[in-house]
Amino acid sequence: MDVVRALAELGLIMLMVEVPWHAAGGGKHPREQRASASIASCGIVLSFFLGCVVAAWSKASIAPTQPYWSYVIFCGVAVSVNALPVLVRIIQEHGGIDEQAGRLALSAAVYTDVFAWGALALVLTLHISGAAGPFESLFRLSGLAVYASLTVLVVCPWLRSRISHTAQSERSRFAITVFYCLLSAQVTAMPGLHQAIGAVTAAYVFHDLFSIEHAWRRWIGRSAHQFLTPIFFVCSGIQVSLSALNEPSVWQWLLWFLLRGKVGQVLGSYIGARIYGLKSINYSWDVDECESARGIAITCCRA
To answer: pLDDT confidence of 26, banded at 50, 70, 90?
Structure first.
């Protein structure tokens, strides 16, 4: 199991490195990027609020020993985000999804993914700090913010300048990218945060270098998708305790969480798309004619 967990964590890191490339390709125009941000924001806010309400309501029944705020925030995050790799697979395999709806849904899912890892960092700091109080949590979050700022403002320009002005082969650039992403993942893991947070942070350093993306997809992308990523989902499934579902009250809370999560995602995404004024387009997956807003909401919800 230790080996399986290690491979699962590596698969998640490899998957998170590709997040910025999905973000860059999710919306080709600034207008689509703004629409994606509107869709993601409304979907996150409504789903997160409904998830926190159910969490606060259910804590005494199913999590009486857990810290209050870490449990509530975790439940809110869990019902407000999409499974990015699942969404990518849905868009790739279902040709009936309109191209614009697919791009907007994918780009919005990337925004929610970034929110999820930031919120997960907050949950971990609250859970790890425990009795130490909010000061240690604030210290950990401040450290993460400082590291992210240094990465964007200092490390990113320096590395890009070195790579651009140094005669290096594609293989050497690829090796530097892999090493830095793994190093960044370890930096965020040391204070108790998740490795994927550091991987996403480091990935933004190299996300718009075409040769790196091409080399990554050729040498790592396919093997990671076919071998490492499935191990991550298997490892997650192994840790699920089915014995806890013996109590009828747990099924009741499960249905409440699913209902609030789906209502929040569909309604929030639809409102966000409507606020931005998206017009009707063809969408031939479930219906012959469907508004763009509804198509995006359905696509996000299915993930």
So the answer is: very low
- The pTM assigned to this predicted structure is 0.63
Q: What are the angstrom distances between the C-alpha of 86 and each of 8, 98, 142, 173, 281?
A: 16, 17, 32, 29, 24
In a 10 Å sphere around its CB, with 0-12 CB exposed, 13-18 middle and 19+ buried, how is residue 262 labelled? Answer: middle
Distance CA 91, CA 268 (A): 20
Task: Read off the DSSP letter of residue 192.
Answer: T
Q: What pLDDT is stored for residue 198 in this prediction?
A: 82
Hey, what are 298's tokens?
């359905």
233: exposed, middle or buried (Cβ count in 10 Å: 0-12, 13-18, 19+): middle
69 CB contacts (<8 Å, ≥6 apart)?
Answer: 126
What crossing angle do the helices spanning 248-275 and 99-129 adopt, rounded to 10°? Answer: 130
